[in-house]
Structure prediction request, 341 residues.
Amino acid sequence: SVIGVAALPSPYVIDGPGPVFNTIGQTEVTQDDGSTQEEDVIQVDGLPTYETSGSLNMLTVSQWGTPSDLPSALQVLQAWIDPTMTVVPLDQAYPPGTTTESEAEANSQAMTASQQSAAAAAFTYLGYEVTPHLQVVSVQEDSDANGVLEPGDVIETINGQQVSTVDEVLAEAEDASAENPLVIEFQRDGVAHTAEVVPVTGDDEVNRIGVSVTSIYDDLPADVTITLEDVGGPSAGMMFALGVIDTLTPGELTGGHTISGTGTITADGTVGAIGGIRQKMVAADEAGTELFLAPSENCSDVVGNIPDGLTVVSVSTLTDAVDAIETFTQTGSAAGLATCS
Prediction:
């Protein structure tokens, strides 16, 4: 029957607008005894902090459906005709071999890395010098590194050369082989180790050491703690960085206004593209946003999808974002700022 077909699972998941969090506000945090307590999303220890006001909102996407709990055909059809929703093929949301648990873990790791990069970007913007270190996140099972390197190890040098970026690692691995293995110096739980590793050559004929890494920054001028429960992914990096800047500088960056935005961030302040920007603009509009900061790399997804009345400007760097907010708060207008067009 038609009703029966409509109720059948469909090989898609559905993305829609998710919760909004004020990075300079507070959030509920679950305590050890199961109770909840309001805490600042961003806490800084080691430098003077200042009062903030208004909102610097980070945005999320809610997803309905998992490999074991698919939406029905009727739900997918309804999402197709809802401009605030996006229907995503299951194998795009969960590539083969991916589980709900592994996807959640990957998003959690991406969020942690995003927070590290946000703090580094904020301190770089404020004039401090920060140095990245590469920490192992996972080890490829069929690589020579398996059993040698472990998640949490911090790579210091390869072949005697300091490495702090993935490109530097690839450069050192380029000419390595079984006869000429990589000599890797790393720290594990504060203890120095040295090991030889034969790289893995991929289908693209590029040598890699067989691990995934993330940048960490353990020499920042202050400790930054960012707390949000059950939120993953890297797309809040720019807004976290703006929140840290506002917390560490006198005055109120927002001028009391409601500012929302999205975008990844690197330590040098580069703002990168994210997914789900249509849903995030809808969530921002519903939250009363006066100015929305969109990564310039997402402009093709922004054009034609801006909710009526939402003011959107495009930014490529953290400096662009700060300048846009300051211009808006001082003039009450986004006139003259870069837009997606």
Summary: The radius of gyration is 22 Å. Residues 1-5 have pLDDT under 50 and may be disordered. The chain has nine helices and 20 strands. The longest strand covers residues 12-22.
